[in-house]
Design goal:
Blueprint: E1 15-22, H1 30-46, E2 51-53, H2 71-87, E3 94-103, E4 106-115, E5 118-124, E6 149-153, E7 156-160, E8 164-168, E9 175-180, H3 190-196, E10 201-205, H4 214-228, E11 232-236, E12 253-257, E13 260-264, E14 273-280, H5 281-290, H6 292-300, E15 309-313, H7 338-361, E16 367-371, H8 376-392, E17 399-403, H9 411-424, E18 427-430, H10 434-444, H11 457-478, E19 480-484, H12 488-493, E20 507-508, H13 515-527, H14 533-543, H15 563-567, H16 570-582, H17 587-598, H18 620-637, H19 639-642, H20 672-682
Helix pairs in contact: 1-2, 7-8, 7-13, 8-13, 9-14, 10-11, 13-14, 16-17, 16-18, 17-18, 18-20
Organism: Rhizorhabdus dicambivorans
Family: In the C-terminal section; belongs to the NAD synthetase family.
Pfam family, one: CN_hydrolase
Length: 686
């Protein structure tokens, strides 16, 4: 619906608000059950929910055993179902209501799909449990294989069967499939075929009595199904009020998206509960397009979409600003959960070390040559090299580190570089590049060589190029190879000097690591005692220095050259990189997500140990400014550098920019399409 809804509406950005409701159940009081269902439906409507999943047999109650075969109860179920259908005419959410429904002399444990006064279809349960505490085959017929049928229900002739996909005609990617309880315990759940047929939201109406440990099993199944099917999975189970003759109920409700829990219920409550989350259906569609194996699975299954019926409906999305009900990570590459962060840092650091170990073993080199500036990137590359030497059983003197002060090198970073090299015990030297740089500038007729304060790109790149030139020749001289220090964020922005510059090396250990993660990898090394206390002290000091290329002298006020004032905050650039390059989202959606993630420093989660003083916030205008800069740099001026990058290990699931791996793009592209899309969405916004 681009252009049809306001920028601040979730419906403008490919989200569907999905809810799971747990009404108070009864022991077969159908009228009371309906009242509870409608209360939750009205609450969901008020909260902007698009799709509401209710428990299995919520209309009749689940644990009523042989009462399911009483016509008096079944007549009342159909009569009350008609009342829900009528009431739904004034409600926005599509309702998934569990009910026992008669058809052709059989009774089916079913889900009635209801929208705006219309029954869209009825989905019978495919797999009926009939073991241990379950006896469903005593009352119900299985729905498996009942394709292409219909049913007369509440005065409407509607589709009937497990072969139904429901798709909104007026809200892109709002496509869902329905299964019931035991179905997702089967080796091949019906929702697997539903997903391969095009459903992006998988819904499960469940009763599912609770026993010790079962909540974990349900969550595992929902999580894994959402991951394997590249889908959202919404699950709602019966809660208090059901008969406890032999069983008990906890009211577990969950919403997962590609393996991530978006929302969950409190369980064991005595009141009705509604959970809701905004499912990113456009992201799911894009991920399926990107992952050929998912589509190969559909081919191997005989193209399930040919066997499913798609039931269209007019959803009439509201398009209002209803906020955003999902957690948006400020740092997509840095988990907020301390345990996940520790695990990611352990893996990330060791991936880099393993990559360097193998590359060094594969060469005839005698030395690892690296330029040490005292900044984050070279610091991290150096400690990776040090750990690689330890793992190979080589002395750290195998590493030849060079600090190469230029016209703007600060004393603090130079001192940190020397202190770190000494603490790690590597072979350390210094080469002052200023004489060579002055000579080169003079040979070129550059104004700086005549004493003029001209600090242009030539002035900067002469220094950057000389440093790399020295490193390559030193590698020749000492029988070694050059370790690259540039990171993933710099590659995205083109913030590196092409060719004989920091874009080039023999092996780039940091090429798969974004700037926002590098500082956490260094912190992890300190926290886990990878090195000695003196090294840890220096690493901590380096973490507190300003990010700067130190190529231009300080201004009259003493302010040093700041990278982020030129290219924008790395925390925003890494956010844009993940959502645009990795996920393929439109710039307007990346801006929408960034605004929700960064508009308030006090809201949301921060990574463990993130300093209070550095907890920034950004308004929409600032986000737009730096997103436009990112788009220009990423799509227009930087790809030629990425097309020629050296080898280096992929580190993050968020992606890499190697032309041999995650990202292939033309070196002569441009950003106009992306900038136009952003402008169309944001012009007129604050």
């Amino acid at each position: 619906m681009p252009g049809a809804t306001p920028f601040r509406s979730i419906h403008a950005h490919g989200f569907v608000r999905v809810g799971a409701g747990t009404p108070l159940a009864t022991v077969g009081d159908v009228a009371a059950n309906v009242a509870g269902i409608l209360d939750l439906a009205r609450q969901a409507d008020a909260e902007g929910v698009d799709l509401l999943v209710l428990p299995e047999l919520a209309l009749s109650s689940y644990a009523i055993d042989d009462l399911h075969l009483q016509d008096a109860l079944l007549d009342r179920v159909e009569a009350e179902l008609a009342g829900i259908v009528a009431a739904s005419a004034d409600l926005a959410p599509v309702l998934l209501v569990g009910a026992p429904i008669r058809r052709n002399g059989r009774l089916y444990n079913s889900a009635a799909v209801i929208s705006r006064g219309r029954i869209l279809g009825v989905v019978p349960k495919s797999f009926l449990p009939n073991y241990r505490e379950y006896y469903e085959k005593r009352w119900f017929a299985p729905g498996h294989g009942l394709s292409g049928l219909d049913i007369l229900l509440c005065g409407q002739r509607v589709p009937f069967g497990p072969d139904l996909i429901f798709a909104a005609d007026d809200l892109a990617d709002f496509r869902f499939h329905v299964e019931i309880c035991e179905d997702y315990w089967a080796p091949l759940p019906p929702s697997t075929l539903g997903a391969m047929a095009g459903a992006l939201i998988l819904c499960n109406l469940s009763a599912s009595n609770i026993i010790i440990g079962k909540a974990r099993d349900r969550a595992l199944l929902a999580q894994s199904q959402s991951m394997r099917a590249i889908a959202a999975y919404c699950y709602s189970a019966s809660g208090p009020g059901e008969s406890t003759t032999d069983l008990a109920w906890d009211g577990q409700a969950m919403i997962h998206e590609m393996g991530t829990m978006l929302a969950e219920s409190s369980r064991f409550g005595m009141d009705p509960e509604l959970i809701a989350a905004d499912v990113d259906v456009s992201r799911l569609r894009l991920e399926r397009m990107r992952m050929g194996t998912f589509n190969d699975g559909a081919v191997a299954a005989g193209h399930p979409e040919k066997r499913f019926r798609t039931i269209g409906f007019a959803h009439r999305p509201h398009g209002r600003d209803v906020g955003l009900r999902r957690s948006i990570a400020r740092f997509p590459f840095v988990p907020a959960d301390p345990r996940e962060l520790d695990a990611d840092c352990y893996e990330g650091f060791n991936i880099q070390v393993e990559g360097l170990v193998k590359r060094f073993q594969s060469t005839a080199g005698k030395a690892m040559v690296i330029g040490i500036s005292g900044g984050l990137d070279s610091t991290h590359a150096l400690i990776v090299a040090a750990k690689a030497c330890d793992r190979l059983g080589l002395p750290r003197t195998t590493i030849r580190g060079y600090t190469m002060p230029g016209f703007a090198t600060g004393e603090e970073t130079r001192a940190n570089a020397w202190a770190l090299m000494r603490a790690l015990g590597i072979t350390a030297e210094e080469i002052d590049i200023r004489p060579a740089a002055t000579q080169m500038l003079a040979d070129m007729g550059h104004p700086f060589a005549k004493g003029e304060p001209v600090y242009d790109v030539t002035f900067e790149n002469v220094q950057a190029g000389l440093r790399t030139d020295y490193l390559f020749r030193l590698a020749n001289h000492h029988g070694g190879f050059v370790i690259g220090t540039g990171d993933l964020s710099e590659l995205a922005l083109g913030w590196c000097t092409y060719g004989v510059g920091d874009q080039m090396s023999h092996y780039g250990v940091n090429a798969g690591v974004p700037k926002t993660l590098i500082q956490y990898l260094i912190r992890w090394c300190v926290a886990t005692d990878q090195f000695d206390p003196e090294t840890d002290r220096i690493l901590t000091a380096i973490l507190g220095t300003e990010i700067s290329p130190e190529l231009v002298p300080a201004d009259a006020s003493g302010a040093i050259q700041s990278t982020e004032s030129k290219v924008g905050p790395y925390e925003l650039n890494d956010f844009f990189l993940h959502h645009i390059a990795r996920l393929g989202l439109k710039p307007s959606k990346a801006a929408f997500l960034a605004w929700h993630a960064w508009k308030e420093a006090e809201g949301g989660l921060w990574p463990a140990g993130f300093p209070e003083a550095l907890r920034n916030s950004y308004d929409l205008a600032t986000i737009r400014r730096w997103l436009e800069s990112f788009l220009f740099r990423f799509f227009t001026i930087s790809q030629f550098k990425r097309s020629a990058i050296p080898n280096g290990p992929k580190v993050s699931g968020g992606g890499a920019l190697s032309p041999r791996g995650d990202w292939r793009a033309p070196s002569d592209g441009n950003a106009k399409l992306w900038l136009d899309e952003l402008a169309a969405a944001l012009d007129g916004e604050g």
